[in-house]
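Usage

Read records sequentially. Each one opens with the input sequence:
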Amino acid sequence: MKKICIILSVLFLFAQVTFAQNAAVRIKDIGKLIEFRDNQLVGYGVVVGLKGTGDSRAAGLTSSALRNLLTKMGVAVGGSAITARNAASVLVTADLPAFIKKGQRISVTVSALGDASSLSGGTLIMTPLMGPDMNTYAVAQGVIVVDGITELSTTSQFSKHQSTVGNIINGAIVEAEVPVTFLDQHNITIVLDEPNFYTASKAMKAIQDYGFPGTKAIDGNTIKIPLSDLESSDLITTISDIQEIEITPDASAKIVVNSKTGTIIIGEMVRLFPVAITHGGVSIRIREGGGGLFGDQQEAIEVTEQQNPLVFIQPTDTLSSLVNSLNQLGFSPKDLISILQALKESGALVGELSVI
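and closes with the structure output:
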């Protein structure tokens, strides 16, 4: 039986790397006050007005919910009165931003809970949204906007995107405010969105130079500014000024790969050492009724190899060299993912590789 050995050669050489300059960003864009946080809300609701795409009779939860609702409204409903598939049980979720006040509006996401095939054209009935403490903080209601399309016939079904999840822009009214107080009465505390010692140090020095010499970076994520350093009694203005300070954060050395879509995002600080790659095309064909395992007249497995030239890559900088080098080889997105993983394992690729 034929045996073909395919060798992928990766050669390491020394190369000079040119570091790219990064644009300055505001502190408010990479961090926030520790007290400035969102709160998640959730509620159970019913969507009506669907055109035969709602829950079936097997989803008894929807019928029970409508029966209870109509009973509270003074409408007596029998056990078999609700049979049309024009309603669906849903879960409604939302994020309650910090400092939002009673009477303001927030957007909500509506997701089918039962066996409904589409929420397109439906209207969400008044739904209380509760926090982790099971208290109501907002009430949602309105027409659902769905991006997906689902069409059914007796013989086929057409679906595009997700039609069982939709949104109601500004569809909930805030009914209760979550009080925000400063946990530390002696400091203004800023936390970075992505922990990084270099960025925390740069932010600390920039705030010190701005006029707050007592500023300290507690760790790679936390910066404390003593209130004793504040010359003005206007705390809101001072916080606003601090958030507008610009720094140059640490550049990303990360590659994010979406294995489903073939999307590849490469950070600026990713490094690629000079490398030589041979990409051999291998074809395997298995025939039915072929030879056996012990040297019969015809083998059942045939392996062929396409000879490809050896391409040598000489990077000249960081991001552009990696992208151009891989494009030079003419690989498909799936091939690129495999190549990136192999380069990372071999050590030729310097950076964090994350496959999602």
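Summary fields computed downstream for this record:
- Residues 1-21, 282-288, 290-298 have pLDDT under 50 and may be disordered.
- The radius of gyration is 30 Å.
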